[in-house]
Design goal:
- It is a single chain.
- By secondary structure, the chain is of the alpha/beta class.
- It contains ten helices and 15 strands.
């Protein structure tokens, strides 16, 4: 008998019922084992090496699933793409080690490990971050979802422009929904998709401080851009984004979550916080900034430096431009980049970072500096290369610094 006929592998699977399709797992996987279609995220058993890099960053825990299966009967990509729920454990399958030898230990769920050297961002939160609550509402929680009421919906980009972005405030009434800056929620659009199945939840970062959009109220805000075309420029009407942007005050929304336990701000007052974002990636940065602004107003000023690098195609497409300009300069150091401003050369956030290399180098040199990157996936490479260049030109060992940033929860990447 061929060894492959009896060898049992521990196949890594993603639970489609609670996955919110945030792409974190696929972006984190260093071996390209995770892929997706319009419905599900799945793991290729032929590529997965159980390195565990994808486990900690997953905001929902949907990634924490394994099945003991014979090597030749591993679930295929095609099978997984068609699932609405995970299959039951196969009865009577003996767990073995990599050589096909029965092993009582191998049937245990693998424990989450530290990220491998190939991981680029932190998979742990800052040491001083507050404790987050996650998955209070969801398909596998005691409460499947919660209803929130729209109490505000305001456009935060210039009127008349195609790419409008909305600031939406949701109130949870008497239902508990505690959140922290850097967390996200899932919004479930009403109706069904082309196959007749209910729409899955869409993830949106929280744009308000932990004390609420309106302090003392059980509410939060989101920053949502109306999607009118896909990444290739083809016309498409985003189901969730248009649903949310068209909501009226008094409308009710189905919400799951909250999600996220790593992209959290430090509570250490000495912390330097560098925020780098594009478009609606500004949502968690607004949340962090607003919490620190409220702390300052209450007599607890932040001792560390606060820097923001914010990019958009033009000033008209930059959310919250007016409020940003009103923030005190001794509170936050704001740097704005426009890639398609009329009559001006293209400029990206990484260009502004290089212009401020002296300031960033001094921040890189101290162990209480935290970096947060949120926005389009295309910005991630440029930002990391800019940090590498700044460190290297200042005589610092970038490999050592990057490793420390990742391991100490000081480099957080949330790109899509």
């Amino acid at each position: 008998m061929d060894m492959a006929d009896v060898q049992i592998i521990k196949q890594h699977l993603i639970d489609p019922e609670i996955c919110i399709r945030c792409n974190t797992c696929e972006a984190t996987c260093p071996v390209g084992a995770i892929t997706h279609d319009t419905r599900n995220y799945v793991v290729d058993a032929q590529k997965c090496n159980l390195c565990m890099a994808c486990v900690s960053p997953c905001p929902t825990g949907s990634i924490d699933n394994w099945r003991d299966v014979p090597l030749l009967k591993a679930y295929s990509i095609e099978e997984q793409l068609g699932w609405d729920s995970l299959p039951e454990e196969r009865p009577g399958v003996p767990a073995t080690d990599a050589n096909g030898v029965p092993d009582a230990e191998s049937s245990a769920t693998p424990a989450a490990a530290t990220a491998p050297a190939g991981a680029r961002g932190s998979v742990v939160p800052p040491w001083s971050a507050a404790h987050p609550y996650t998955n209070l509402y969801g398909p596998k929680s005691e409460r499947k979802s919660v209803r929130a009421t729209v109490v505000g919906n305001a456009r935060v980009t210039d009127a008349g422009h195609d790419y409008d972005t909305h600031h939406i405030v949701l109130d949870f009434g008497t239902e508990p929904f505690p959140v922290l800056e850097g967390q996200s929620i899932g919004v479930v659009p009403p109706g069904t998709d082309a196959t007749g199945r209910a729409h899955h939840a869409r993830q949106y970062s929280i744009a308000s401080a932990r004390s609420g959009e309106r302090p003392g109220y059980n509410n939060l805000s989101l920053t949502i851009k109306r999607v009118l075309e896909d990444r290739s420029g083809q016309p498409i009407r985003g189901i969730a984004s248009n649903y949310m942007c068209d909501l009226k005050v008094g409308d009710s929304v189905e919400v799951v979550g909250p999600f996220g336990a790593t992209f959290l701000m430090p509570n250490d007052q000495r912390s330097n916080i560098v925020m780098i974002c594009t478009g609606t990636g500004s949502a968690p940065m607004r949340a962090m900034t607003e919490w620190l602004r409220r702390q300052r107003k209450s007599g607890v000023p932040h001792a560390g430096k606060l820097m923001l690098f914010f990019g958009a195609r033009s000033q008209e497409e930059l959310p919250y431009f007016g409020p940003l300009k009103n923030l005190p300069k001794d509170f936050i150091d704001i740097n704005l980049a426009y890639s398609r401003a009329a009559g001006k050369p293209k400029q990206y956030v990484q260009d502004l970072m290089r212009e401020r290399s002296a300031d960033l180098a001094s921040l890189l040199a101290v162990p209480h500096t935290y970096f947060y990157v949120c926005g389009l996936k295309s910005m991630e490479e440029g930002v990391l290369l800019a940090l590498q260049d700044i460190a290297t030109r200042s005589g610092m060992d970038w490999d050592r610094i990057a490793t420390a940033l990742r391991q100490e929860g000081r480099l957080h990447l949330e790109t899509y």
